[in-house]
Amino acid sequence: MKNTHINKYCLPEKIMAIKKISENIWEIEKEGKMNVHGIIFASDKLMEQIKKEEKTTQQIKNVAMLPGIVEKSIAMSDAHMGYGFPIGGVAAFDLKKGVISPGGIGYDINCTDGETEVLLNHGAYIKIKEIEKHYRKEVNFVNLADVSLQKSNIIYYMKRPEKEYIYEIKTKTGKSIKVTEDHPIYTQEGMKNAGKLNKEDKIAICAFKGVPYQEPQEQIIINKEDILKVITLKRSSTVGNVIPQIINILTKLNLLPLKYSSYQLPYLAKLVGYIFGDGCMSFINGKEGVVSFHGKEEDLTKIREDISAIGFTPSRIYKRLRNHTIKTYYKEYKFTHIEYSIKVTSTAFVSLLTALGVPLGMKTNQPYAIPIWLWNAPLWIKRLFLAAFFGAEMSAPKTINKYNFNALTLGMNKIIGLEINAIEFLEQIRKMLKEFEINTTKIMKVKEYRTKSKNGDTCGYRMQINGESKNLIKFFERVSYVYNNEKFRQASLAANYLLLKNKIKEKRMGMQRIARVLYEQRSSANQVCTLLIDGDTPIQFIKHSLWSKNKEIQRMTFDFMSFAEYKSAYSFGNNGLAWDGIEGIEKKPFDDLVYDITINNDNHNFIANCFIVSNCGVRLLQTNLTKEEFLKKRELVLNELYKNIPSGVGEGGEFKLSDKEIDGVLKNGSHWTLNMGYATSDDIEKTEDSGCIKEANPTKISQKAKARGRNQLGTIGAGNHFLEVQEVETIYDENIANTFGLKNKDQICIMIHTGSRGLGHQNASDYIQKMEKEHGWKHLPDRELICAPIESELGKNFFAAMASAANFAFCNRQLITYQVRKSFNKFFPKSEIKVVYDIAHNIAKFEEYEFDGKKQILCVHRKGATRSFGPGRKEIPEVYRKIGCPIFIPGSMGTYSYVLVGTKKAEEISFGSTAHGAGRVLSRTYAKKNINPEHLKQELAQYGVAIRAGSVKGLLEEAPEAYKDVNEVVRVSHELGIGNLVVRLKPLAVVKG
C-alpha cells in the first residue's frame, strides 16, 4: 500500500526551494524555523539523485533548525537519507548555544510492521504504531538468564519509512510477524536477523497474546465517601484519629480518589480476583485490617511485588506444615501439606479492598458478586480479575488420553441457603467470559462437592470452559492464569500444542482429499503414497485415507506426539515459552512506516506477535608487495584473511576481553593494542588523534553497550563494511603520494572500513533515550534529532561516551591490521605492512575555525563525512602536517577507491570536511531483489576482483549499482578544492560480511 502518512516530527513535505549558486554548490534558502541555510556540494548528475530521495533534502533543512547551528547545514556529494541527519551531513555548533546529537554521528534502527502487536505488562497488547500515544507503558520481555517473563518501561520509540521490502515469517503453529530484514528474532542460536533465518531455525515464542489495550477513563471508582462508608459499616471502632489516618494513607498513595486510569488499578484487579479465590480478609476484633494470601512460594513472590507496587508492605512468606480433614457426604479425606502464605496488616488496605467489593470473612458463608465497577472497566482489566481468580480456583490444563484435554473446571461451594448466590456468581463469570468469546457449559450442581463442617453444610456447583480445541485455545491465549505460574506454563504450552495439532489435522484432511482424487483418477496406492507421504502424513495414514469408508478422518494418528512429549521436546525454560518451527519466510513489497522500541533492560527484547524480537571509519595500509606477487597467492591469502577476520552481523573475534580490559580499550584506544603487542608506535602516530581521544570516559558507557562490544574486537561486521586488497592504479600527485608511502603503480594496499560494531550502536541508543527523557523532542523539527546542550552534563557525558566508542573503533581497526599482517606474513614472510592513516567517518569533534572575524571552538558533527584539514593543522600527524590530512573515499565493491589530501579551502567552506564514500542510490532490499547474484559474480570477475563473503545477500546489497558513481563524488570534492586527488586504487580481493 502506498504510504500516505505525514511524519508529524518533520515539516510537511513541499516543493523545496533549491537553487544552484555556483558549479557543484546548491543552496536551500533559509526560511521558517531554519536558523541557517542549507548547502549541498554536488554535480548536476548527483543532485538529480539526491533530489529523488526527498527525505534527504528535508533532513538537511531539519538540521538547519537545530539550536546553536553555525553558518550552514551541509551535505556532501554522497549524501543520502539517514537517521535524523542525512548520511554525508556536516554541521557545526556554537559551544554555548549549540547541541550535540547522536543522530549527527551515526545511528540505524531495525523495525517491524506497524500492525505488530506488542505484549504489555498487564496482559494487554497494543499495535506498535500506536505505542507513541501510550509511550510510558511497560512491556513484557524475556529475561534470557532464567527464561522468565518480566516487565520494563519503554525508553525509546522509533519509526522510519521502508519503501522496498519486508519479511513475513510464519511458524508451524500459525503465528506470523512482518519485520525488516535486519530485525533480530530470538532463535535456538540466539538473536538472528530476519533476513538470515531459514526453515531449519527454531524461533522462541510466547503463546499468550492477551487482549487489546484500551485507555481507561478518568471516571472515579472509589472516593473518600466510599471509604468512610466501609469504615462505618464494617469496622466496629471509629473513635480517635482512625478515619483521618486511613484517608491520609490512601490519599498519599494516590489511591483516593481511585480511578479507572489510576496506575494501581491493574494490580488491584489481580489482587481482588485472587482474594475471591485463595485469600481471606477481615478486621480483627472489628479493628485492625488484615488480608492473607495462600499459594505456592513462587506465586506469592509475585503477589508481594504487586502489593509493594501499590504502596503497601507485605509480610515475608510464611511456611508451615498443615494437617487437613475434609468431610464429604461420601468420605472423610485427611492429608498433610506445606502451606505458604503472606499477609498485609493494614486497615487502609483492607478498607480499600472492601470498598472495591471484596467480601470480608468466610466466603462460603456469605453472598457476594463480581464488583459492579469491574463491569465498566476495559476488557484487559476484566481479564486480570478473571485470570487471578482462575489462578486460584480453576483446574489446570490436563489431558484425558495424552492427546486431548479435559474441559477446565471452576467449582464453588456455599452453605445451604446460598445456592442461588453460587449460581448467580458463576453465571456472572460465564457472562464475563463471553466478552472474550469463550464458551462455557451450563452450571451444574455436583453432589460430590458437598461437605460437612462446623460452620455448616455446603453444596457445590461447577461450570466448565468448553473443551473444544478452538475454544480452549482462545482461553489459553486471551485469559489464562495469573499468580499461578505452573498453570500459566501448562496453558501456554497447551495452546501451542493444540495449534500445532490443528494445523497438522488441516494438512492431513487436505492430503486425504488429494489422495482420494488421485486414487479415483487411477493412480495406484503406491504412487499416491510416494507422492504424498511426509512426516505429518505417514504411509499408514495415506492408505487408510484411500480405503476407509469414512468421508473424513478427523482423529490424529497414533504416531502423533503426546502433550507430554511436546512439552519435553519444545519447552523453552519453565515459564510457558516454547520453540516453534518455521513454516515459511516470504519477502514482500512494502511501502509504509516501520517501527521499533527500546526497553530499559540489558536483555533488549520484547514480545511482538508472540515472537521474541530484539534492536566507522577507514584505514589504509601500504605494503612492499606488487600486484604480480600478490596475484600468485591471492586465493590463499584471501582464504586466510576470511578465516582470521570475522565478518557479519554479531560475529565475534578471537580477542575476548574482561571488564577491566574493555575499559582499557575504551579509555586508551589504540594505545591498549600497543601495550599488548598488537601495534607499533608508527601505527599509533598515523592514526587520527593518535588512536585515542583523551576525553573518553568508560564509566559513561553502559554495561549493555560494553557487553555488545566485548567479543567484537578485530571484526569487520556487515553492511558496507569491508576489507579490500587494492593496487595503486593511478598516481595524480607524486610528491604527496610518495609522502603517504604510495610510491609505485601496482603497489599493494589494504583498505579496512569498519567501526565500533554493536558497542557504538548501543551507546547511541542509550543516549538517545537519556536525551529524550531529560530534554524532550517537541522543540525539534524531527524526533530523530534528539540532542542535548553541549555544555550540559548529559551533553558532556555523551561526548565522553562517544569518544570511548571511537577509541574502541580505532582499536578494532588496529587489531584487524594485526590479523592482516599475520595472514600476509604466512605467505609473504618478507612483507612489510605499514599504516598510511586511520581516519574516522562518524564523529563529533571540537575544532577551531575562524568565524565572525575571530577564531573560536565549534562542535563539528560529521555523519558519513571525512575530516579534510589542510597543511599546518596541529591535529594532523607531524609526518603529514606540511601537506595536509590524508583522506580515503572508498568506492562500492568492485569499483575504484581514492586517496585525497585535505585543504585550506575545506576549512573555509565545509568546516574541514569532504565526502566519505560513494553513497547509496538503491536500498539494500531493492538491491537484493533486483540484482542477479550470478550476474554480480560475473561482473566482479570481469573487474578482476576475488570475493569472500558471509552471504550472497550481503554481496547483493553492496553491489556497485546500489551506489552513486564514486568517480563523480570524488570529482566534485577535487573541483571544489575540499579534497585534492592523490591516488586511485583498484580492488583485487574483498572480504565482506
Describe what you observe in this structure.
With 993 residues, the protein is an alpha+beta fold. The protein has 4 domains: 112-207 and 576-613, Endonuclease - Pi-scei, Chain A, domain 1; 220-483, Homing endonucleases (Endonuclease I-creI, Roll); 493-569; 617-992, tRNA-splicing ligase RtcB (Alpha-Beta Complex). It is built from 29 helices and 45 strands. The strands form 12 sheets. Strands 33, 34, 35, 37, 41, 42, 44 and 45 form an 8-stranded mixed β-sheet that branches. A 7-stranded mixed β-sheet has the order 1-2-3-4-5-39-38, with helices on both faces. Strands 12, 13, 16, 28 and 29 form a 5-stranded antiparallel β-sheet that branches. The chain is globular. The two termini are 32 Å apart.
Mean residue pLDDT = 86
Rg is 34 Å
β-strand number: 45
Stretches where pLDDT falls below 50 for ≥5 residues? 1-14, 648-652
How helix-rich are the residues, as a percent range? 25-40%
For the largest beta-sheet, the strand count, sense and barrel status come to: 8 strands, mixed
Q: Write down the overall geometry.
A: globular
Identify the CATH architecture of the largest domain. Answer: Alpha-Beta Complex
Distance between the termini: 32 Å
In percent terms, what proportion of residues is strand? 25-35%
CATH class of the largest domain: Alpha Beta
Structural domain count: 4
CATH domain topology of the largest domain:
tRNA-splicing ligase RtcB
Please, what is the CATH homologous superfamily of the largest domain? tRNA-splicing ligase RtcB
